[in-house]
Amino acid sequence: MDVTGMDIPRTGIVERRRRRRVILVVAGLAAVVALTLAVSRLKPAAPGVDRATVWIGEVERGPMLRQVRGNGTLVPESIRWIPAETSGTVEQRVLEPGAEVGTDSRILVLSNPQVELAAEDAASQLRIAEAELESLEAELKSRHMDIRSELARIEAEATEARLQAEATEELAESGLVSGVELLLARSRASSAATRAEIERERESSFLGSVKARLAAKQAEVEQCRATSRLRQRLLDSLEVRAGLNGVLQEVTVEVGQQVSPGTNLARVADPSRLMARLRVPATQARDLLVGQPVSVDTRNGLVPGTLARIDPAVREGTVTVDVSLEGELPRGARPDLAVDGTVEIERLSDVVYVGRPAFGQENGTVGLFRLEDDGRHASRVRVHLGRASVNTVEVVEGLAPGDEVILSDTSRWDDYDRIRLE
User: Fold this and answer.
1) Which CATH class is domain 51-74+273-421?
2) In Å, how far are 7, 127, 158, 407 from 404, measured between CA atoms?
């Protein structure tokens, strides 16, 4: 039997089976690759969102009121901090916070022996200066009287000499006296007139010096008087007084405490006249103007007001504004009461607007989910926002009136362009 001839058919069968397995493996790999590519190109399935957990707003067209909101407190329009005018020791707290005070009400009593001694010394120096001024006035008056007496005597002599000369001239014309006697009479009259003129100039010069000396002494007295008034004021300031009709709000020192000049000792306010002091976010404060209307919520009623002052500085991201209140305050309104205020910036007559989204900024672009026609799905759209208010914002581009969009925080779905509402 031929063994070789019997092995040929069996070998062909093995080869065919091997090729079939290779083809199947290759086909399987190709199918796996194709399926992988197909799956990779599929979009992720839209996640499900509970409709009750999102805030949906409708785009509208019409008038929009622009407002800015801030929070703050009621503060008195008239506040007086009472500083220490001199150093001292607190001896007594006469009144406590909450007490009603008048202009002259004593709040604290301080002590300072040096201030008391300085006040007494200044008063003594003033008395001495005033006495010296009176003595100088009396002395100068006496000297002036002596000068006037001497002037009167010399003027009398001059008058006598002039009359004697005139009589001598008449006698000389009649030939009763010699020419020498006439010359002597004229000489005596001229000399007396000269002495009288000199004495009058002396009096005028004396009066000028009197004025200068009295002015110098008077200035010294005024300086002593000013020093005495200052020392007395410092002495009086040891009894700390309110200086304002109102309510004592705060006393910042204790008995026995040492205070230095300028230390705030107490605060007095008039509670009958209050205003609202609000803090507005700096990003929203650029449109604020003095005179804009404001509505202040005291938690016990709304009070109208007017924006009266805008702080030029930004502190901790806010701008402080003062609101003058025009309406009657509700019962219970008092200083430091927390309030909210809404400032009316402008009224837009015809704009497309929507509720303000959680992360939408004024004049910026934001991605919002807009509800589709079926009401069950929402797709992301790019929306250009314009002018903003407290609760609404202008829509410049991306939405139309009647569209419904999700306004609440959707950051958890930033990786999706479409969501499903359940």
Assistant:
1) mainly beta
2) 81, 90, 121, 9
Cα distance between residue 15 and residue 9, in whole Å: 10
Measured distance CA(399)–CA(58) in Å, rounded:
10
Question: Is the fold of 51-74+273-421 the same as that of 81-112+238-269?
Answer: no
Sequential pLDDT tens for the chain (422 residues): 444 444 445 556 667 767 777 777 777 777 766 666 654 554 556 788 888 888 899 999 999 988 889 999 998 888 889 999 999 999 999 999 989 999 999 999 999 999 999 999 999 999 999 999 999 888 888 888 888 888 888 888 888 888 887 887 777 777 777 777 778 878 888 888 888 888 888 888 888 888 888 889 999 999 999 999 999 999 999 999 998 888 898 999 999 999 999 999 999 988 888 899 999 988 888 889 999 999 999 888 899 999 999 999 999 899 999 999 987 888 878 888 899 999 998 888 889 999 989 887 888 899 999 998 888 888 999 999 988 888 888 999 999 999 999 998 888 888 888 888 88
Element (H, E) at 169: helix 113-173
Rounded Cα gap, residues 210 and 21, in angstroms: 142
* Chain centroid to CA 209: 55
At the topology level, CATH places domain 81-112+238-269 in OB fold (Dihydrolipoamide Acetyltransferase, E2P) (2.40.50)
Q: Where are the domains of the chain?
A: 51-74+273-421, 81-112+238-269, 114-232
Question: What CATH number does domain 114-232 carry, 3.20.20.70, 1.10.287.620, 1.10.3210.10, 3.40.50.300?
Answer: 1.10.287.620
Alpha carbon distance 380, 131 (integer Å)? 97
- Please say whether the dihedral angle defined by the alpha carbons of residues 175, 178, 179 and 181, taken in this order, is positive or negative: negative
Give residue for tokens 């009396």. Answer: 138
Quote the CA–CA distance of 391 and 68 in Å, as a whole number: 9
pTM assigned to the model: 0.55
